[in-house]
């Protein structure tokens, strides 16, 4: 009861003698400190918005312009060419100011207008510079003079020490490609996948589309591109993700793993303490815009940071026709799941973030709580794992008022979701290969009810100290979540650390209020719906076949030695592996970012080309998003296009994605090579296809995550994984015919000595 009294600022009771008023000074102090923290955040946000608004100039540059203008005026020069005098004539307070004050005020107003004009001009110039993309096709180490000049100009117009969102107003808009270019590239991409008669038929459909309906649809896209920041992103989010009525578990959500070889502490509560503290440190840096703007690796080219805005305090809300993404400005607590119970854990006390040791103490309280789950509570999360329509109906019927609404609001408005899992996962010594496969399946779907799949991301803390996360896909793409997760892993191990007993460092405050148990009143009808959703989810989860394996024979150092792109090399290996596995080629999806443009998401690289089928290094990218948007416009207009219908109905039997390793500076893979992440993965896109995620780590390792479905007799993740290994080695042999050439993993410097 002590915690309850501390949470109340004042109490009063009516007695025969009058009103007995009791004040809790400690509670009042916490209210005051929380208010101070809230106002500090508002002021910080306001300051950052101003700094971002005047970028690429700085606020101090205004003072420089004002002083420069005033200085020239004192030399009896008029840099405004009469404009200052005009402003002085129309000053509304001219009667109450002396002539000298009027001149100064007019000069300041002119200086401000000049400063704003310079900012607009610089931003426009930077936007034009960032629209130049020829640098992508320059040979590595041999830049043309044009590109060298362009790099110098970008540096000049980029200003100094940009904040996270500083570049947003300067990023170019995604251009709408020409219809003829899109159709031409599409036909080139499907040429190796069709017979001669099929290709001729498709060419005929494409010609009819290009000369007829395509031009009409294109007009609407160009019109949208004039006023929208990105003509694709909102439709991509809605129609690719939010309008899907099937389960998002497996079909949409993806996962990220912990370190492959290292578990910093075997104590579950301690690992949770550091991990959760590091996540909120990242949120603090995000709110203050202290995170450096993401850039194309190895360049000065900025990437769009719009997706970062919804990392925290975000939930996907189910609807009967379409879901929505709801984001709240802030949240001071987490939603915790353990053994069928839901808890609210406040992460701030007296306006400050709890220390890792305090979080560990609070998590241990939850782990030690013996209370059983209430009726229907244990498997409630299955609603988020099943079909979307039943979940939307149940939410509307059973969670729109009373304690159920309050508890559901608590989960949905939490900063993020946390599962304290009773299982042990990770690479186990007695079965390293099988344990990684089970680890992947656990992160992707768990028990189908012990994750909240609608949250922007859910953190899983296992009994043996291993961690991982499950992320919802509609609000952002994997690189944004990967950047967050890399920061958390590095901060946990290299900055926060643990004491000799494996506990978090720091002291315990025993007066912290206990985590709050959420209450539910779930009727029998709702429990039946939970059971139905769980049945659908379990059937889907049981069908997923995963194979996760680290490839250590060689890595990017060996590939780059032959002047090859590591990603292109791996894509070629995947093509070879699939051909050996199936005896044919298939439509292949490789995710590529369009974050060079404002509010960009992903584009499709069709890596199965005529050249790749002939084992020639080449990647062909087509504007798949362009065809998708044309299809959306045709649906809005109520017109049918046989060409678009066939294009967008083709299954992606091989869906691939590279997880970029971004925070390289946070990890020392030379002195601590064991601290490497296993990356993450996703489920197969097609029922008869494969999903392949890979991450290139350091110089000598590539981790693969292969998924497919047991229900398809023609797919096998382990068999395909073996084909990938064989293909990688065979491709390397093409470039390394000398058997004396070392091809095994090792230190690059050692290889040079050889």
UniProtKB/TrEMBL annotation:
Q: In which pathway does it act?
A: Lipid metabolism; fatty acid beta-oxidation
- What is the name attached to this protein's record? carnitine O-palmitoyltransferase
Homology family:
Belongs to the carnitine/choline acetyltransferase family.
Major localization class: mitochondrion
The entry's localization annotation reads: Mitochondrion outer membrane
Query: Which molecular function term from Gene Ontology is one that the record holds?
Result: carnitine O-palmitoyltransferase activity
TM stretches of this protein: 50-74
Catalytic residue positions: 473
Per the record, membrane topology reads: Multi-pass membrane protein
Per its record, the protein catalyses: (R)-carnitine + hexadecanoyl-CoA = O-hexadecanoyl-(R)-carnitine + CoA
Every Choline/carnitine acyltransferase domain range: 174-619, 626-725
Residue span, Carnitine O-palmitoyltransferase N-terminal domain: 1-47
Lineage start: Eukaryota, Metazoa, Chordata, Craniata, Vertebrata
Under the heading Gene3D superfamilies, the entry gives:
6.10.250.1760, Chloramphenicol acetyltransferase-like domain, Choline/Carnitine o-acyltransferase, domain 2
Which InterPro entries does the protein's record reference? Carn_acyl_trans, CAT-like_dom_sf, Cho/carn_acyl_trans, Cho/carn_acyl_trans_2, CPT_N
Tell me which EC number(s) this protein carries: 2.3.1.21
Q: GO biological process: any one?
A: fatty acid beta-oxidation
Q: Which GO terms describe its cellular component?
A: mitochondrial outer membrane
Kindly state which keywords UniProt assigns to this record, in alphabetical order.
Answer: Acyltransferase, Fatty acid metabolism, Lipid metabolism, Membrane, Mitochondrion, Transferase, Transmembrane, Transmembrane helix, Transport
């Amino acid at each position: 009861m002590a915690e309850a009294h501390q949470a109340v600022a004042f109490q009063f009771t009516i007695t025969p003698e009058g009103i007995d008023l009791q004040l809790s000074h400690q509670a009042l102090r916490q209210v005051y400190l929380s208010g101070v923290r809230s106002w500090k955040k508002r002021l910080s946000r306001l300051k950052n918005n101003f700094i971002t608004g005047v970028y690429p100039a700085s606020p101090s540059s205004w003072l420089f312009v004002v002083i420069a203008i005033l200085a020239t005026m004192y030399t009896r020069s008029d840099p405004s060419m009469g404009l200052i005098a005009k402003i002085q004539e129309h000053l509304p307070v001219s009667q109450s100011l002396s002539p000298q004050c009027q001149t100064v005020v007019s000069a300041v107003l002119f200086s401000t207008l000049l400063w704003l004009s310079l900012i607009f001009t610089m931003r426009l110039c930077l936007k034009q510079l960032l629209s130049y993309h020829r640098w992508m096709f320059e040979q590595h180490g041999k830049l043309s003079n044009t590109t060298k000049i362009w790099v110098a100009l970008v540096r000049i117009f980029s200003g100094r020490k940009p904040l996270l969102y500083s570049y947003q107003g300067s990023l170019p808009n995604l251009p709408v490609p020409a219809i003829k270019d899109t159709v031409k590239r599409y036909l080139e991409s499907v040429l190796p996948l069709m017979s001669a008669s099929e290709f001729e038929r498709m060419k005929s459909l494409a010609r009819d589309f290009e000369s007829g309906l395509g031009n009409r649809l294109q007009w609407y896209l160009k019109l949208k591109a004039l006023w929208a920041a990105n003509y694709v992103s909102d439709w991509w989010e809605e129609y690719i993700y939010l309008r899907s009525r099937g389960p998002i578990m497996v079909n949409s959500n993806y996962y990220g793993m912990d370190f492959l070889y290292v578990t910093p502490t075997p104590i579950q509560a301690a690992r949770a303490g550091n991990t959760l503290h590091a996540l909120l440190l990242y949120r603090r840096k995000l709110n203050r815009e202290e995170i450096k703007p993401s850039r194309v690796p190895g360049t000065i080219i900025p990437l769009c940071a719009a997706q970062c805005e919804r990392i925290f305090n975000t939930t996907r809300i189910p609807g009967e026709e379409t879901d929505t993404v709801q984001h709240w400005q802030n949240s001071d607590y987490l939603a915790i799941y353990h053994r069928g119970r839901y808890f609210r854990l406040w992460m701030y006390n007296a306006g400050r973030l709890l220390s890792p040791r305090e979080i560990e103490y609070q998590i241990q309280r939850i782990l030690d709580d013996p209370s059983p789950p209430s009726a229907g509570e244990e498997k409630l999360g299955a609603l988020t794992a099943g079909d979307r329509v039943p979940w939307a109906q149940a939410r509307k019927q059973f969670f729109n008022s009373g304690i159920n609404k309050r508890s559901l609001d608590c989960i949905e408005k939490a900063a993020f979701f946390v599962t304290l899992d009773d299982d042990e996962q990770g690479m186990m010594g007695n079965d390293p290969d099988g344990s990684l496969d089970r680890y992947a399946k656990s992160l992707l779907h768990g028990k189908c009810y012990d994750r909240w799949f609608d949250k922007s991301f859910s953190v899983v803390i296992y009994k043996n100290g291993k961690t991982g996360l499950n992320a919802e896909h509609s609000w952002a793409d994997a690189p944004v979540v990967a950047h967050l997760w890399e920061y958390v892993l590095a901060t946990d191990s290299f900055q926060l650390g643990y004491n000799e007993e494996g506990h978090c460092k720091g002291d315990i405050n025993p007066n912290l209020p206990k985590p709050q148990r959420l209450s539910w009143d779930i009727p029998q009808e709702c429990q039946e719906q939970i059971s139905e959703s769980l049945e659908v989810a379990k059937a889907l989860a049981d069908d997923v076949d995963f194979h996760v394996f680290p490839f250590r024979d060689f890595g990017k150092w060996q590939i780059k030695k032959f002047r090859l792109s590591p990603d292109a090399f791996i894509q070629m290996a995947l093509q070879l592996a699939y051909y050996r596995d199936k005896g044919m080629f298939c439509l292949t999806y490789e995710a590529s970012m369009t974050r060079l443009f404002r509010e960009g998401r992903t584009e499709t690289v069709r890596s199965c080309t005529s050249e790749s089928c002939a084992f020639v290094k080449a990647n062909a990218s087509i504007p798949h998003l362009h065809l998708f948007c044309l299809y959306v416009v045709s649906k809005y207009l109520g017109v049918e296009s046989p060409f678009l219908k066939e294009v967008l109905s083709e299954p992606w039997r091989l869906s691939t994605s590279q997880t970029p390793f971004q925070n390289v500076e946070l990890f020392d893979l030379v002195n601590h090579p064991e601290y490497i992440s296993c990356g993450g993965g996703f489920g197969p896109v097609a029922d008869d296809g494969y999903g392949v995620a890979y991450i290139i780590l350091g110089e000598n390792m590539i981790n693969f995550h292969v998924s497919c479905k047991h229900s398809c007799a023609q797919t096998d993740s382990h068999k395909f994984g073996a084909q990938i290994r064989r293909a990688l080695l065979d491709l390397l042999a093409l470039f390394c015919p000398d058997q004396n050439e070392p091809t095994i993993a090792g230190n690059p410097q050692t290889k040079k000595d050889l």
